[in-house]
Structure prediction request, 672 residues.
Amino acid sequence: MSKEEIYERLNTVFRDVFDDDEIEVNENTTSDDIEDWDSLEHINLVAAVEQEFGIKFTMAQVMGMKNVGEMVDIILGA
Amino acid sequence: MIDYPFDNEEILRNSKKIKKKLLCDGTTRIHKKIAVLGGSTTHDIIRITELFLLDQGIEPEFYESEYSQYWQDVMFDNPELVSFAPDIVFIHTSNRNILEYPMISDSEEEVSEKKDRTLKHFYDMWDKIEKTYHCPIIQNNFELPGFRLLGNMDASDIHGRVRYIRELNIKFAEYAAGHENFYINDIDYMSSCFGLDKWSDSAFWHMYKYCMCFSAIPEFAYNLSNIIKSIFGKNKKALVLDLDNTLWGGIVGDDGAENIEIGQETALGQTFLEFQNYLKLQKDIGVLLNIDSKNDMENALAGLNRPDGALNPDDFMIIKANWDPKSINLSMIAKELNIGEDSLVFVDDNPVERDIVKQQVPSAAVPEVTTPEQYLRIIDRAGYFETTKLSEDDKKRNEMYKANIQRAEEQKSFADYNDFLKSLNMTAQIRAFAPMYYARIAQLTNKSNQFNLTTKRYTQSDIEKLADDENYITLYGKLTDKYGDNGVVSVVAAKADGDKIHIDLWLMSCRVLKRDMEYAMMNELVTVAKKRGIEQITGYYYKTAKNSMVKDFYALHGFTKVGENGEDSVWTLNINDYVFKEHAIAVNTDESDE
Prediction:
C-alpha cells in the first residue's frame, strides 16, 4: 500500500467521522486543524481508522501519535 | 440502515450522517428525556443510543452526568438533574464500579458484609431515584470479571470474583422483580454473546475510561434502546411468516406435505422444528402469529398440519395463502387485526419478497434472516417484542384477537347493527384507576394512537400519581362479551378546577371500536362528575398523524366547540344539558356500587 493510497483512504475515514466532505489531511494535520476533533471524537476516529485498515493500534501507539503523519507511519509498518 | 443485524463499525463511523437521515425521514416521534448516569465514559453510548431511539419513534433528549458521578448526582440532588426532570434514568455501571471485592484472607462474614455494602450503595440510590423522580429506572447488571484468580474455583469459592459478581447479579434481579418500574439492562448476557475478552478491552478502560470496547457500543446501545422503546409502548405486535423454507424446508406445493423437511428426521428438519417451537413460545407472551405465503390454502394447511411440526393452523390469527403480492396480504393482515403496519415483523427467506415488502410497506420490520439456522437468533436478538411488563392481557392477547375475528364474522349475519350489539351480551366495569390495572392503563396510554384525543403518554408511576390525586377523576373501562374478556380497553382522566373538569386523557383501544363503549364511558364520567358537583366539562382534541377518527368525538357527545388552534380544538359541555346515551352494555352489574 502506497502512502498516497493510505492518505486517500484516511480522507474518507475523516470525512465520515466528522461528517465534512471538505477535509483533506496531510502528514502535519493535528487535532488543532479540525474543529470537531476533540478527545472524545478521537476515540471514534482511532476506532474507524483501525477498522478501515484492519489493524489494531497498541495503547502506546495511540497515546504517542502526534499528527496524521505518525499515524500513517504506523499503518505502513503494520 | 440500522436495522438489526447491523454493522457495528459502520454505525460508529457514520453516526452523524445516519442521524441526519433519520431526522428528515418524516416520522413523528414522541419526545422523552433520558438521564444517563455513568460510572464510566458515556459519550459514545449516548451518541449511538440516540440513533436507535430515533429509528424506533422516540426523540430523546439526554442528560449526561459528569464522569463517574452517577451516585453523587442522585444522592445529592444535582440541581441540573432535578430541573431536567427525566422520563427515564439509566444507570450505566459495570464491574469497574464494584466498590469492594472479597480478599482471600476474608472470612465468610466479611465477604457477606462487603456484598451487602456494595448492594446498599445501589439500593439507596435506586430508592432515592424512585422517590425523587417517579420514573422508570434502567440499571446495568455486571459483566463477569476480566481475570480469575482462583481459576475455575473462582466460580464456586466465596472469595472468587466470578461467584461474587453472579451473586450481585441475582440480587439485582430480585430487586427488579420486586419493583414495578425497575429494569435490568443485562450486560452479563450481552457481554457473553459478544465475547467477554473482546468486550472488556482494558486498553479502552485505561485510555478512555470506557468499561467496554468501542465496537460493542452499537449492540449495547441497541439492547438499551429496546428496553426504552418497550417501556414507551413501541414494541412490535405481530409476526407475519412465510411458509416454504421459512417454517419448513422445501416447497409444499411441489414436494407434497409428506416430503417437506420438518421434525426429527434430518438436521434441517430439526432446525425448522426448533424455530417453530420458538415461535410457539412467542405466542405465549402475546405475539400474534400470521401466515403470508404464496401457496394454495390447501397445501399451506397440509404443511402446517404435519404432526411432527410444532405449529398448527390454530396457532395463527390470520393465514393468507394465495398468489397475491405479499405486501398486499401484509396490509390486509394489519387491517384485519386492527393494528398498524408498523407493528408487523415480516419473516421470509426470499430476499426478493423481503425487498418488495420493504418498499411497499416501509414501516414494517423486515429482518435479513439469512439461513435457517440463523432465523431464531436473529429474530430473538432483534428485540422486536422486548418484554418489560408481562400483563395478563399479553398472555391472553391471541385469544382476544381471535374472538374479535369471530365477532366480525357474526356481524355479517345480522341485518341490524344494534341487534348484533345486543347479541354480544356485553358487560363493562367502569371505575376509578385501581392498582391491579396500573400496568395495563400505562401501556394503553403509550400504545393507543387512533382513538386518542390528547395522545398524552404516561408511565406507570404517572398513573399511580393520577390515581392518588384527589383533584382527578379517573376511569378505566373493562369490557366483556360472550366471546370473552377484552380486558381494560378505555381510559379517561379529568382534572378538576373548581366546579369544572378538564379531560386530559381520553382513549380507547381500537379492538372495541363501534361497540358503544365510549358512550358508556361518557355516561359514567358525567355521573361521577355530577356527584362531585361539577357544572361544566371541557374536552380537548389534539390532532396527530393518526387520530383523525376522533376529531368530531366531542361533537358526537353533545359538546360545543369553544376554541380552535389550527386543527386542535377545545369543547365544553354544561353538565345539566347532557343527554344520557342508550347503549347495549350493562355497566357495573357484577358488583355493588360503593
Notes: The longest strand of chain B covers residues 484-497. Chain B has 23 helices and 17 strands.
